[in-house]
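$ ./design --mode recover --in tokens.txt
reading tokens...
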């Protein structure tokens, strides 16, 4: 008889915040060198993935155990453009959730502009401090392999 085992649990306490930096690639930009808005969602996914990984669990491991987290709601507020070769810091915060959902908030900051650290770009005509370029939020729903809502693993509910 096969006894199901509980989904992977974090090796340490579930992380509530994570920060990851990404450099904007040429292919992510429009002809004016501005990052296309469609790239913000994948950048936020990197933030969520690294937040979970920081706790010792990967999305891949959850999925092998039948736990799938899908976007049910996303909102992005664009404040300033992000451009080619900028370094974007995606700050992800776990805000809670419920029995079947997880809520995250994000801030996307330009911390390096066009290859120049923010403290050194005044001469290049840019701001001398990191610049908040977007804020965002997502709600993830937990589903099984057939897309049917299911409960989150207990350790992920309590966070």
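writing sequence...
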């Amino acid at each position: 008889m096969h006894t199901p085992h509980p989904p992977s649990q974090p090796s340490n306490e579930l992380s509530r915040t994570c920060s990851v930096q990404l450099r904007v690639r040429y292919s992510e930009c429009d002809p004016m060198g501005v990052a296309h808005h469609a790239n913000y969602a994948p950048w936020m996914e990197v933030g969520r993935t690294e937040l979970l990984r920081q706790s010792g669990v990967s999305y891949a491991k959850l999925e092998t155990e039948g736990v799938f987290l899908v976007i049910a709601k996303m909102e992005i507020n664009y404040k300033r453009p992000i451009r080619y070769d900028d370094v974007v810091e995606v700050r992800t915060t776990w805000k809670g959730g419920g029995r079947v959902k997880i809520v995250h908030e994000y801030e996307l900051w330009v911390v390096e502009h066009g290859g120049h650290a923010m403290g050194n770009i005044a001469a290049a005509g840019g701001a001398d401090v990191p610049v908040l370029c977007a804020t965002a939020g997502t709600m993830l729903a937990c589903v099984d392999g057939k897309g049917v809502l299911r409960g989150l693993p207990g350790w992920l509910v309590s966070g």
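exit 0
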